[in-house]
Amino acid sequence: MTARLRWDPRAGWVVLVLGAAVMGQWLENYALTVGATILIYGILGLGINVVVGYAGLLDLGFAAFYAIGAYTSALLVLNAGWGFWATLPVAIVVAAAAGAVIGYPTLRLRSDYLAIVTLGFGEITRITATNLRITGGPNGLTGVPPVRVGDYELVTSRDFFYLALAFFALVLALSLLIRRSRVAYAWRAIRQDEDAAEAVGVRTVRAKLLAYVVAAGIGSIAGPLSAAQLGTVDPSNFTFLTSLFILVIVVIGGMGSLAGAVLGALIVVGLPEVLRSAQEYRNLAFALLLVVTVLVRPRGLWPARPRPVDLGRGAEETPPEHERSRRERREHREEPGQKRGALLRVDGITRRFGGVTAVEDFDLALEAGEIVSLIGPNGAGKTTTFNCMTGIVTPTRGRVLLAGKSLTGTSPHGVVEAGMARTFQGIRLFDEMTVAENVLLGGFARHRSLIGPWGAGLVCGAGRADLAVVRWCLDFVGLRASADQTAGALSYGERRRVEIARALASGPSVVLLDEPAAGASPVEKKSLMDLIGRIGTLGIAVVLIEHDMALVMSVSDRVIVLDYGRTIAAGPPAEVQRDPQVIEAYLGAPEDDPGPSPVADEARA
Amino acid sequence: MSDFLQYLVNGLTIGSFLALIALGYSMVYGVLRLINFAHGDVFMVGSFAGLGVLTALSMSGPWLAFAAFAAVFAGALVSGVLGVGIMRAAYAPLLRAPKISLLIAAIGVSLALEETVKLLTRAGFRSYPDVLPDAMLFSGAVRVSYSQVALIGLSALLMVGLWAFVTRTVRGTAMRALAMDPDAARLMGIDAERLTMITFFIGSVLAGAAGVMYGMYYTQINFAVGFLVGLRAFTAAVLGGVGNLVGAAVAGLLIGLVQSFAAGYLSSRWADVIIFGVLIAALMVRPHGLFGERIAERV
Lengths: 605, 299
Prior knowledge:
Chain A is α/β, with parallel strands linked by helices. Chain A contains 24 helices and 14 strands.
């Protein structure tokens, strides 16, 4: 083996910051001022990247956090005589709190509604600042003193440039840490598919709120800096147009891309300066350029690329098991003197939508390692049953018990955490992420906290235990070789298997598979049959919704047949196939249509 | 009490303009799921076009009414053509791109229109000639001018026309179908591209007509009116539940009333704060707007 020196992309950032520091030595004042402004907008760009780029929550009022940071700091400096450094944490906390305030009502809103609410919040902030006396009204605040470091006052453009560079470098380092953290994965998952994110155990509501808070906190740092640079806080610097420019930074740079955010800041601040000679036309030129950029490169100039997860080598022997479910299952088993109940119990689940009863009195008792299939014609209520069991839909009546613990009314992320994972009928992978990242997210439910590292690993990046889980799951479904491909690029059958691997990564005691064989080729079906059987031998209980009778009859221990929401038959496969009611549900009454039964045929095949 | 009635009448007048513009936001959102940021500027351009026609005609006396109608018509037409042009040039190529790219394109077009008009007008205000008669229908404690009644009436007429088009014609029905389920609508043989253009045209025509009426009523316009008025109309469209036309019209009137009362009882400086405050409060209670249907997602 040859040891190769690999270029770490993070080294590029060090080069960039050092390069800027060297440049600062010979740039003239004008260039230094523009440079400092670029750095300030770079900070804003890195801030909005969290909420728009990662979490995909459109924010049209980001200037509000910039304004709140600037006003908070300047007011404390001017009225309370605080120093710049002391005001910083206060400014950040106030802006983060504002982030929570704006985030809270928007959590239930669709993205377009979100846009107007954030816009409204931005305008409310600006108008309030313009109208209040304490904030200096339309004239704003003036006479903000320069920053002092020890006894030294940072008065010159060069001094300030270095101050801004230092802050930028700090925020950049923080952003690099955040990028590989659990919460960043959670945000990206939410952006790509919120329901799927919830299904792998992401507390989506909390994660979204956190996105606002973190973004506001980061963005607010630009406020005090700008106040110190200009010596004034002018409300006309925080208009809707400012918010747009900040948004444009991430959009033309590339959503979720740190390099894109920095490049975007360079363009948004730098370009109008370059066009300065054509003063009048520069905004028009900028607007046209914006349209052209979006038309030519809709994903931005420097889009974020999926990064391969370094899985290391070697195969894992032991399958992942969910900490909590393992503990609870053990406790459950060891209860002395009591007859052990089933691992999963579903008692009389009923769900009505208006006048339609989608599921009626559905019962199920499942032991570890058992494979039960749910079959029935389209619209029989199979998927609704899954949705009731996993907390996506609240059942009208009935309860779900997993290892003796009630899951009724639990949110989807709570259900996975408790040890029941699922796949979806229409595959719902995080298409822009790699296969390994998808499976890594599948392990989200193993840890309770949203913030913090994966497992016991370093502050960022996945921990060893998590990587082992990913390795094991990918080997189990036979997709280790495709680990670094984006999930969206795989074939249909492979995508199904990635989804199963993702469900297994949570270390479940029960998995619910919704039509895993739909659209699969005969060869793929064969390997899928084998895969489901192997899941059973791990001691994981499987509930399968499937239309492929050959598959159902061969892998299932028991089959439950639904028709119009009612359970019309249940029992071992052979018994169910002969049930006249089942044949009728599939084919109509025999006297109407005396054709051969495909149910029986396929089972024979 | 008379104050209240006065604010009510003024609010209804502003509200009817806002309703016309909000309808355009809502219609475009219905077919493209796009917040058409340039819509406010289409309104602004229509307003300038109407001003151009009025200035060119420079009529007086009994011909004034004719000139006013010609201006509304011209403004509406210019805006309509502009709207379709924007759709074809900037939005059509991006229909398959991420949603946010489309939004940014709309923002770019909006800025470009504003900057162009700003350059052409040297960033100054332009005055509309005095077209509307000063005669008062009521001139007691509450003052209602004939022109207010005429403007509200014309707006109402346009809205009824739109309503009839959407509910009583094949094209209108196709438009609703396209908004509900684009794929199913295409499969039924609806020419989505053509219909999208028609939608842009109608929406922009309404905005252009509102632009000219706004100019006649307030007599002063500049490049920024599109942004200011557009923002309130956009708020109305969201408040009504984007995509819902009746909702947009009702919420437009409502926002007009809120603006008028806020300016009257409090201060016009705080009007926008109140408007956005009402919007945020309303969305907290009804996340899909006042009249918006909850769109269930299939899992």
